[in-house]
Amino acid sequence: MPAITHAYEVLLDFTNDTHDCATIQLLRDYGWNTNAVVLLHPGESITLVLDAGSVYKYALKTQTKVANVSARSWRDINCDISQLFAGMPPSWSPQRPSPGPPTNGVIVDRVWRDYRFNVWNDQ
Q1: Helix (H/G/I), strand (E/B), else coil: 42
Q2: Among 121, 122, 85, residue whose Cα is nearest residue 103
Q3: Where are the alpha helices (DSSP H) in 1-123?
């Protein structure tokens, strides 16, 4: 007898708890589809709806630092953007980092510098 599967959704809440603006974009579109970028001002948050257990990959950028993250969870996730950049040496440092520790189902795969599309250069 086949098992009954129930698909359900979980919420991924990114909060910009930094002093700078931050952007969130699907990693596969990073740098290409600039219409799919969400800009978060300090203190703002966005809630994304995900299929439980599915893997989603995002690029989160603040100033010139980018964190490539993977999100996979079976429950709702609250993630502060500052946690994604803290405690992990950037990929441009002499010691190549391993993936960062999970933050409630969000794993930092890589932190790196990107000077393209820097919306903060116009000041």
Answers
A1: coil
A2: 85
A3: 81-85
